[in-house]
Amino acid sequence: xxxxxxxxxxxxxxxxxxxxxxxxxxxxxxxxxxxxxxxxxxxxxxxxxxxxxxxxxxxxxxxxxxxxxxxxxxxxxxxxxxxxxxxxxxxxxxxxxxxxxxxxxxxxxxxxxxxxxxxxxxxxxxxxxxxxxxxxxxxxxxxxxxxxxxxxxxxxxxxxxxxxxxxxxxxxxxxxxxxxxxxxxxxxxxxxxxxxxxxxxxxxxxxxxxxxxxxxxxxxxxxxxxxxxxxxxxxxxxxxxxxxxxxxxxxxxxxxxxxxxxxxxxxxxxxxxxxxxxxxxxxxxxxxxxxxx
Length: 293
What we know:
Blueprint: H1 15-50, H2 54-59, H3 72-79, H4 83-114, H5 120-130, H6 139-149, H7 155-180, H8 183-191, H9 196-207, H10 209-225, H11 228-233, H12 242-245, H13 257-289
Helix pairs in contact: 1-13, 3-13, 4-7, 4-10, 5-7, 7-10, 7-13, 8-9, 10-13
């Protein structure tokens, strides 16, 4: 590469291009910072909201600090408001439903993409059609079904509903990744006498950890925030989750807004921390699943 003089730009280089690139990057960062601030605004507002009493909620500006931060709002909702019970219910129901959905979805996707059988395309089509069924249209049939089999006001009703409605999107995410898996590995395993079950759990399953982590995170976010099924199928406080527990602080004549804010803050933190630590996994898994070999 020739240069006009030592220390100068290469011959033919456009000095304005470098300046334009820097201005473009600066503008991009400014826009991204502005978007980040807009995204953080509701969280900051909710934090201040949860530390106020009813008078401060309505009389002070939204982003103003409370005159006397009421951390006791968190203590009150955790003990007197049964939020500890609701929180544990949300944790174990979310975990069980997510684990079942990921394992079953992975098995179904493996059978559809890696095994040859007559009705594989039909089964895949049925799962994809299920994605178009609105949740609200199934509430009455599901409630009637669970009533007949004695599962109303039982956490199993929630787990079964979550697994059924999350299975199609789980399979859709896994499809591209499973299609891209090299068949040579499976053929070598068959030659060595490996059974289908052992092949899946010892070879295929470890190869799909990244995309399985993605589906697990997506399922967990949905299950943790779900409200309609809990509000419809569960009536006992013993089995309620955080999403409906907030209603305990809404009375006929008065509402404890600070306690509601504390409950919402408690419900948001676990899913927010999970997303912050595992967001790279979501991008990695979706990118891997978008390539079909």
